[in-house]
Amino acid sequence: MFTEALSISVKRNTPSSPSIVRGKGCFLYDADGRAFLDMSGGSGAANLGYQRDDLIEVTQRQAELLVHTGWNIDNPHRHEMVAKLARLVPYLQASVFGAVTGAEAIEVALKIARAATGRQGVVYFDNAFHGKTQGALSVTSNPNFRKHLALGGLQVSALALDYAAEHDPARAAQWHEQLFAYLTQAKQTGSLPAAMIIEPIQAAEGMYPVPRPLLESIVELARTFGVVSIFDEIYTGFGRTGKPFVSDPTLLPDLLVLGKALGNGLPISAVVGRTELVDCLGYAEHSSTFTLMPLVCAVASKVLDIFDQEQPWQLAASNGAHLRQALEQLGRDDERVTHVRGRGLMLAFDFAGDVLALRNGLLDHGVIVRTGGCNSNTVKLTPPIVMSGSEIQAFMQTLQGVCQAL
């Protein structure tokens, strides 16, 4: 039975994914030594690239000392990592609740909101994706994922987004009024939610940036109505958008959910927020066997050192701007390339042609991209944010060549 299941898994991942045995920088390599430029960046987790020497050194040193103790046994790397993370996030004072995966951290954030407010409901938004565990699925909009909600999920409400609001103040004001009316009615009927949760850039469904005025409305109105605002920055955090986080001192949600790049490939996530709020979830009310284990915390601590010292989000901002300009130029030359969007090195475009042929053509030429989303013709680009200008140029040359061949 195990052999049969393994065979099914391998077949499902072929031919769209090569079998990778090692990596370095922005490249992955198969057993034959063939190089692939990874424009997916380990699903957005390898922000610092693959196999950095300093991260390898920390990993090897800690692996020789202690890998795992269990969540209930303390280790010094936890405190080092948490202190560094608290200095990087935009809160003046914050508490950190550790977890293992992004979806688990979403569950933690929802638990905190429900514990703090005594209410159950959660508001999420069109095209949301927050994970595939039960609570996270409850605030994910894709019906292909939601059909697996075995327990029926939380009490949730989905609201529409107005992506034009960023460039049209009147539309932004109208959306603000609509959200205000929704919350006013909920208060009058005794059905205020515990939380509102949103991704600042909706990644899985196609890299759609949520306009800042809408994010500001969510934070402001949540505070007005006593609802917990949650930003899911699992994807956008740690420099990917050209700044440390989308959240900043003037756009500060109650809770910030982080993951992916915190471990640069190792599994670690966290919920960060105001101490009096995070502490509403007591000790042992949420735990996981591998939470904040010594090996992962040691590596995450070094990752945070690198972010503090090198500020790689500056590269994401400059190189992301160059990549976006090149994609927009390609769109002017090839009408099939449309709707270039995103921030920093979190970009996407739609391809009005055979997107699977485009993806496989790129793979044949040594480039890995991800496709999909609410529009099935979207190509998503989230390479390591340390990607060089020459690597961006090489990608664009390959993309242009493959487009011309289709």
TrEMBL record:
It comes from the Bacteria. It holds the Pfam family Aminotran_3. Its cofactor is pyridoxal 5'-phosphate. The keyword Oxidoreductase does not apply. GO terms for molecular function: identical protein binding; pyridoxal phosphate binding; transaminase activity. The keyword Ubl conjugation does not apply. PROSITE patterns: AA_TRANSFER_CLASS_3 (PS00600). Keywords: Aminotransferase, Pyridoxal phosphate, Transferase. InterPro entries: Aminotrans_3, Aminotrans_3_PPA_site, Class-III_PLP-dep_AT, PyrdxlP-dep_Trfase, PyrdxlP-dep_Trfase_major, PyrdxlP-dep_Trfase_small. Belongs to the class-III pyridoxal-phosphate-dependent aminotransferase family. This is Aspartate aminotransferase family protein. It comes from Pseudomonas tructae. The lineage of its organism: Bacteria, Pseudomonadati, Pseudomonadota, Gammaproteobacteria, Pseudomonadales.
